[in-house]
Each structure stands twice: as structure tokens, then as C-alpha cells.
Specification:
Elements: E1 18-22, H1 26-36, E2 41-45, H2 48-54, E3 61-64, H3 73-82, E4 89-93, E5 107-110, H4 115-125
Parallel strand pairs: 1-2, 1-3, 3-4, 4-5
Protein name: Response regulator
Domain Response regulatory: 18-126
Keywords: Phosphoprotein
């Protein structure tokens, strides 16, 4: 049975989307869980390395901060793409989107976060 896709929140999906948020700020991860947890299955990772450990075919869309200690979002995205994943990737960063990035992504959002723009990106890019 194909998945029902709609931007109308009154219409339920056949399956729940799984969204991964990756950021080194625990407060932001908490906000993502609170804001989106009732609509999607929300997973979080506190950095690039943890994101790689959690990443699999179950993820429908992932959002990465670009600058994190240890492994940056850019490095994690390159590793995920290098592993052959075609999962939609979003970037949520304070770094201007005009800055050189060198990674493949589907949507670039700048901080401070905008709840509606993130939701729109999920609805538009997730399978």
C-alpha cells in the first residue's frame, strides 16, 4: 500500500515519517523533540559521529547543524552520501547558506529555527 503524503495535518499518513535531527546543542534537540514528536518519529544525535551510528534506511529525512565539535555536519553528510544513502538531507545552521559547503543537501535553513519552515521541508522532501 503506498504511503499517503499530504501537507494537510488533518489527514494521517499510512506510516509515520522518521526524522533525524543532529546538533551539538542539547536544548535544540529537546526543542525538535517537543515541536515535532507528535507528528513524526523524531530521533536525535548530539554530533556527527552519533549521527553515523544511528543512520540507516529507516530515516526518511535528516537535518544537520554544520559546525559541531568532533565530526562536523558537513563531514557526516559526506560520509552518509559516501555510504550510498540518497536520504533527503537538510542543513539547519547559523552559517550563511552562501558559504562554501561542498556537500550534497536538499534544503538549507538558517538559525534561528523556524518551526514552519522545518515542517515544510519535511513534508516537501521526505518520501
Amino acid at each position: 500500500m503506498p504511503e499517503l503524503r499530504t501537507s494537510d495535518p488533518s489527514v494521517e499518513r499510512a506510516t509515520e515519517l522518521t526524522v533525524l535531527f543532529v546538533d551539538d546543542e542539547p536544548e535544540l534537540l529537546d526543542i525538535y523533540e517537543i515541536r515535532y514528536g507528535s507528528e513524526y518519529e523524531v530521533l536525535t544525535a548530539k554530533g556527527g559521529r552519533e549521527a553515523l551510528e544511528r543512520f540507516d534506511d529507516h530515516i526518511d529525512i535528516a537535518f544537520f547543524d554544520r559546525r559541531m565539535p568532533g565530526m562536523s555536519g558537513d563531514e557526516a553528510i559526506r560520509a552518509i552520501r559516501g555510504d550510498g544513502y540518497r536520504t533527503p538531507i537538510g542543513i539547519i545552521s547559523a552559517v550563511d547558506s552562501e558559504a562554501e559547503i561542498g556537500v550534497e543537501y536538499d534544503v538549507y535553513l538558517t538559525k534561528p529555527i523556524d518551526e514552519d519552515r522545518i515542517r515544510e521541508a519535511i513534508e516537501r522532501h521526505a518520501p
